[in-house]
Amino acid sequence: MTVRQSLAEAAGAFTRLDRRGRERRIAQLLELVGLDAGCAGRLPGQLSGGQRQRVAVARALAVDPAVLVADEITSALDGSVRASLLGMLRDLQRRMGFAMLFISHDLAAVRRVSDTVAVMYLGRIVETVPADALPDGTRHPYTRTLLSAVPSLHGGRRPAGEPLPLSGEAPDPASPPTGCRFHPRCPVGPSRRPGRDVCAVQDPWHEAARVACHFPYPAGDGADHAYGARPDADGT
Q1: Quick check: 143 and 134 in contact, CB under 8 A?
Q2: Bridge partners of 161?
Q3: Which residues, 6+ apart, have CB-to-CB distance to 126 below 8 Å?
Q4: CA distances (Å), 150 to each of 12, 80, 108, 143, in order?
Q5: With a threshold of 0.85, does the pTM exceed it?
Q6: Is the per-residue pLDDT at 224 higher than 50?
């Protein structure tokens, strides 16, 4: 399908358009995502990766969504194209008023476009935190481990006190561990800290909880943790 055919299919999903109205809507959608009208006659193989992603965004916007789900939308793009696409998404969100669920493993991208960040492990949200509080405001060991995996200037040497790498493979989500789902791999869980058996038998997750952990890190020590020493999880 050409870009025109793809966008026309989406634009007519909920609204009946005549030929002139369809062409007008296609031109409007291309303009929204910063593409020239000449792109309408092209096939996907004639577009760059960044242009294809912009067409995908235009196709989603064609139905005037209340919620836009952006799942790994920047994963195949280089740095400059990724930055441009993220800036466009944020601008469109503000102008058009839709909510956006942005799903990514790229923490820098998440922080740039999000107001609130939710970190998931084995299908459960283990922590929610305002985007502008990263990394200092994080308290869950899994979130801290993700942040510690970000490349630093230490030249591959792990600073003293930084959490150990995760051990083993992620369990089967269809048959998660008892208690805290993260406890078999947790750097401060019962396998590493005696006296924390509650993690293996009692699930700390609660739908309304901001941090699903029996022994969360003290609030506000994330800056010290990210690339240097950290206190014990119980604050001692």
Answers
A1: no
A2: none
A3: 119, 120, 140, 142, 143, 182, 205, 211, 212, 213
A4: 43, 19, 10, 11
A5: no
A6: no
Q: Which two tokens stand for residue 223?
A: 């800056």
pLDDT tens profile 17-35: 898 989 999 999 999 999 9
Q: pLDDT tens for residues 183-206? A: 999 988 998 899 999 999 999 998
CA 146 vs. chain centroid, Å, equals 12
Tokens 């020493």 identify what position?
A: 229
Instruction: Give backbone dihedrals phi and psi of 65, rounded to 5 degrees, phi first.
Output: -70, 150
Q: What is the DSSP string of 58-109?
A: HHHHTT--SEEEEESTTTTS-HHHHHHHHHHHHHHHHHH--EEEEE-S-HHH
Residue 215 and residue 83: Cα distance in Å, rounded?
36
Give the pLDDT band of residue 160 (cuts 50, 70, 90). Answer: very low
Amino acid at 11: A
DSSP result, the chain: --HHHHHHHHHTSSS---HHHHHHHHHHHHHHTT--GGGGG--GGGS-HHHHHHHHHHHHHTT--SEEEEESTTTTS-HHHHHHHHHHHHHHHHHH--EEEEE-S-HHHHHHH-SEEEEEETTEEEEEEEGGGTTTT---HHHHHHHHTS--TTTTPPPTTSPPPPPSPPPPTTSPPSSSTTTTT-TTSTTTSTT-THHHHS----TT-SB--SSPPPTT-HHHHHTS----TT--
Say yes or no to pLDDT of 97 above 90: yes
pLDDT at 159: 47
